[in-house]
Design the sequence.
């Protein structure tokens, strides 16, 4: 019985990590496509979205079957529940990538003004999102609390950048009246990137829950969360 449980856990973990990689590639593709309005790459993202949805459905079924067939307890139960929630977050991130791809396809094919991208801190935003996706995956793969914990601070940077986007786009629209509609549409891209960061921190919370049975959801003070996790890690080293 233990052998079968271990085999199922290994299979589910692999499916989650594969889903993570697929979603990362979707987000990376749209982030690379935006500056040049690369419609071909954006269409590829839309086509692959079907794989993301199929992976989510299969993973949901596999985790539910595991819960029903093996009635897991303790860490195995936490793992299964965490994977269900992470799967949902990954699917939502995939949806954001799809929406951004549709933004790219709506454009006229001309590259976006490099000066605007610099003012809006576009590269910093996309690098931050991709870094968070990589770090969150590694946190699960290595069962590393410090990596998971680091994501809360990384998300603050995305929030900061997003909070300044409206003012920059408003000024740009005043300078280029013919770009008003574009600026309104472009703001939605940053909203989705910022929401991607939120979902990544959700996944970090689930990694912490799985490893350490610490429930971080709905906590109002992230700094206290970080201190609590650091304290537990220090206790484990002593």
Sequence:
């Amino acid at each position: 019985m233990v052998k079968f449980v271990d085999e199922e856990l290994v299979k589910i973990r692999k499916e989650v990590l594969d889903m993570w990689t697929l979603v990362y590639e979707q987000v990376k593709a749209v982030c690379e496509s935006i500056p040049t309005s690369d419609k071909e790459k954006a269409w590829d993202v839309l086509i692959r979205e079907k794989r993301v949805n199929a992976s989510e459905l299969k993973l949901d079924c596999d985790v539910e079957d595991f819960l029903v067939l093996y009635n897991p307890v303790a860490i195995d139960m936490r793992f299964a529940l965490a994977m269900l929630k992470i799967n949902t977050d990954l699917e939502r991130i995939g949806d954001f990538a799809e929406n951004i791809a549709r933004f790219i396809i709506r454009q006229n094919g001309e590259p976006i003004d490099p000066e605007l991208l610099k003012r809006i801190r576009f590269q910093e935003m996309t690098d931050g999102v991709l870094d968070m996706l990589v770090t969150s995956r590694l946190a699960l793969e290595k069962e590393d609390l410090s990596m998971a914990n680091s994501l809360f601070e990384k998300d603050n940077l995305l929030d900061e950048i997003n909070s300044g986007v409206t003012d920059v786009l408003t000024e740009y629209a005043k300078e280029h009246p013919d770009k008003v509609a574009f600026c309104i549409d472009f703001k939605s891209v940053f909203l989705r990137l910022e929401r991607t960061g939120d979902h990544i921190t959700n996944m970090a919370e689930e990694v912490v829950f799985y490893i350490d049975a610490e429930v971080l959801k709905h906590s109002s003070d992230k700094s206290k969360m970080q201190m609590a996790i650091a304290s537990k890690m220090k206790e484990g080293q002593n």
Observations:
- The mean pLDDT is 91.
- The chain is about 85% helix and 0% strand.
- The CA atoms of residues 16 and 83 lie 7 Å apart.
